[in-house]
Specification:
about 230 residues; alpha+beta; six-stranded mixed sheet; 2 helices; elongated
Length: about 230
């Protein structure tokens, strides 16, 4: 039988699990940085591109520090750097390496947006762009997210012919199945009505058959001759 020692060990395990959960909770709810769902983007040479970046923190932020860095196979540089005092103030740029870069984000109204626009793109701009965020309010916790930019001569047009053919075939098959089901229901309905009509005719004809009921026009039962 389990003794008091086993109960004490179980309680200790539950207590340890609870303390571990409390320890990990701030980590799971801490600073997050996102550059959107598309982490690989393409842009035409000579145009401009928006590099998105947003952050979130369940604990708020004060004197938040951010920067964008560029990294390719043969170069690394800090593009722009700045701070955000609090939730009620916009980002303040403290360093900018390239005049083609403009900070377009805002942290007011809980937007927490520190996106940038890169103008007059060149083929040499191809590479990884990383958005870094550090929050002193969370013991200088840092987080980052990376987006890969490919500068091309022109964007390739996506050929949707195969997709349209597949959709047309699938739609045709679905339509055919619906038509078959409708025809099936119609045939079942007609057969049911036909059987009901035949049944009514049989009942009616049996009611009109008077050959055995002794009515006028029917064949009466023959009586044996009376004895003298």
């Amino acid at each position: 039988m389990p003794g008091a020692g086993d109960g004490g060990k179980a309680a200790a395990r539950w207590l340890g699990t609870g303390l571990l959960g409390l320890f990990l909770l701030p980590v799971t709810l801490s600073l997050e940085v996102s550059v959107g769902k598309a982490t690989n983007i393409y842009a035409v040479n000579g145009t401009e591109i928006l590099l998105p970046c947003t952050f979130s923190s369940c604990f708020g932020f004060e004197d938040l520090h951010f920067r964008w860095t560029y990294n390719s196979s043969d170069a690394f540089k800090i593009l722009i750097e700045g701070t955000v005092k609090n939730e009620k103030s916009d980002p303040k740029v403290t360093l900018k390496d390239d005049d083609r870069i403009t900070l377009v984000g805002s942290t007011k109204e809980k937007m927490n947006n520190i996106s940038i626009v890169l103008r007059d793109l060149e083929f040499s701009d191809t590479g990884k762009y990383t958005c870094h965020v550090k929050n002193p309010k969370e013991n200088n916790l840092q987080h980052h997210a990376t987006i890969f930019l490919q500068v091309v001569d022109r964007l390739e047009e996506v050929d949707n012919t195969v997709t349209l053919i597949i959709l047309a075939v699938v739609g045709g098959v679905i339509g055919l199945l619906i038509l078959i089901l409708l025809i099936k229901k119609l045939v079942i309905f007609i057969l049911k009505k036909t059987r009901e009509k035949k049944k009514e005719c049989l009942v009616s004809s049996s009611g009109n058959d008077n050959t055995e009921n002794g009515l006028p026009g029917s064949k009466a039962e023959e009586k044996p001759p009376s004895k003298v």
